[in-house]
Design goal:
Protein name: Dipeptide epimerase
Cofactor: Mg(2+)
Pfam families: MR_MLE_C, MR_MLE_N
Strand content: 15-25%
Number of domains: 2
CATH superfamily of the largest domain: Enolase-like C-terminal domain
Radius of gyration: 20 Å
CATH class of the largest domain: Alpha Beta
Number of strands: 14
Strand order of the largest sheet: 5-6-7-8-9-10-11-12
Keywords: Isomerase, Magnesium, Metal-binding
Low-confidence stretches: none
Shape: globular
Distance between the termini: 31 Å
EC number: 5.1.1.-
CATH topology of the largest domain: TIM Barrel
């Protein structure tokens, strides 16, 4: 079995409402879908959602890189030879993880279809019965965010993720404290600053004010490369620290472990380069007794399902943020969300049924 053809579909996923985080506001989500065929008739799908601020790639650079550099080297390869395929991609271009993730995801989709197994059976089996999905609050006025959080709990959500990172630190303090007051103490709160507080001094100014808000963790409070700054924060507060943008591959993972800079890590397929390198990070984390979250760049059902298969297969992955399709008004396929839970089917591969008409409509 060899890869014989790869088609690229650049699309823009329409969002139900703008998604506001510390470093950007998204009105829609640019995504690159690939359709991969093999010489024996199998078809697999992959997705790339690059982000200039996180992966260092743009929408158009990723399209060009896939078309002119990566795909020509992948044609003729066996999808099962995933170690070899990553070696080829890494030799072709340094970094560019979101571009590589599209190829990786499609290969795993085809592996599952070739063996007639759901993807999770190829990477550890089904450890969890379902995935609990948090409700994510993008940055807004404190009262509006608190109201949305309360409404989410009425719909059955038991975990709220709060996006912060405002230049006005007092506003962030107000957001977190008010949401905790409104939803009560039984709802889990997770706070993500997306590097917005920049320095450990500013982050500690906020965190010491809301230390009694019973947060599960504070995610990426300061600049991604400041691993030592995360260590300083972790040593001075009683709130667990999660690193997201500061973790891409094994080099950063080793630095985080050696520095004891984090209690949790957020692994994203777009940062790591796909499922295969993400699994390596999970195993590194296991050895260091660090628990993991599988994150998302607000991806369609294709990449979201890839993350879900990884998340459901590993005992060390205790959290996820795979609710991207719930934020999209016109997704390419359906996922089995039931209130705050996501269930995976036993269909082979990703288990995704792409609406070909929508794929054509969304293409740009």
């Amino acid at each position: 079995m060899k890869i014989s053809k790869i088609d690229i579909y650049p699309i823009k996923l329409p969002l139900i409402k703008p998604f506001v985080i510390a470093y950007d506001t998204f009105l829609d989500m640019p995504s690159i879908i690939i359709r991969v065929e093999t010489d024996n008739g199998l078809v697999g799908y992959g997705e790339s959602v690059p982000d200039e601020h996180v992966t260092g790639e743009s929408f158009y650079s990723t399209i060009a890189l896939l078309k002119h550099n990566i795909i020509p080297k992948i044609i003729g390869q066996n999808p099962f030879d995933i170690e070899k395929i990553h070696k080829i991609m890494n030799a072709t271009v340094k970094n560019a993880p979101a571009a590589k993730a599209a190829i990786d995801i499609a290969c795993y989709d085809m592996m599952g279809k070739a063996t007639n197994q759901p993807l999770y059976n190829l990477i550890g089996g089904k450890y969890w019965d379902f995935l609990e999905i948090p409700h994510v609050l993008s940055i807004g006025e404190p009262k509006e965010m608190a109201y949305e959080a309360k409404e989410a709990t009425k719909k059955g959500y038991t975990t709220i993720k709060i996006k912060v990172g405002d230049k006005d630190l007092c506003k962030d303090i107000e957001r977190i404290a008010l949401i905790r007051q409104i939803v009560g103490r039984n709802v889990k709160l997770r706070v993500d600053a997306n590097q917005g507080w920049v320095t450990s001094a500013k982050a500690l100014t906020v965190l010491k004010e809301i230390e009694d808000c019973a947060m599960d963790w504070i995610e990426q409070p300061i600049l991604a490369d400041d691993i030592q700054g995360h260590k300083r924060i972790r040593n001075q507060i009683n709130i667990p620290v999660m690193i997201d943008e500061g973790l891409h591959g094994e080099k950063e993972m080793l630095e985080i472990i050696n520095s004891e800079a984090a209690d949790f890590i957020n692994i994203k397929l777009m940062k790591s380069g796909g499922i295969y390198p993400a699994l390596r990070l999970v195993h590194q984390a296991k050895m260091a007794n660090i628990q993991c979250q599988i994150g998302s760049m607000v991806e369609s059902s294709i990449a979201s399902l890839a993350g879900a298969h990884l998340s459901i297969a590993q005992s060390n992955i205790i959290s996820n943020e795979l609710g991207g399709p719930q934020m999209i008004s016109n997704d390419l396929a359906q996922m089995d969300y039931q209130k705050n839970k996501l269930y995976l089917s036993e269909k082979p591969g990703l288990g995704v049924d792409i609406d070909q008409q929508k794929l054509k409509e969304l293409k740009v």
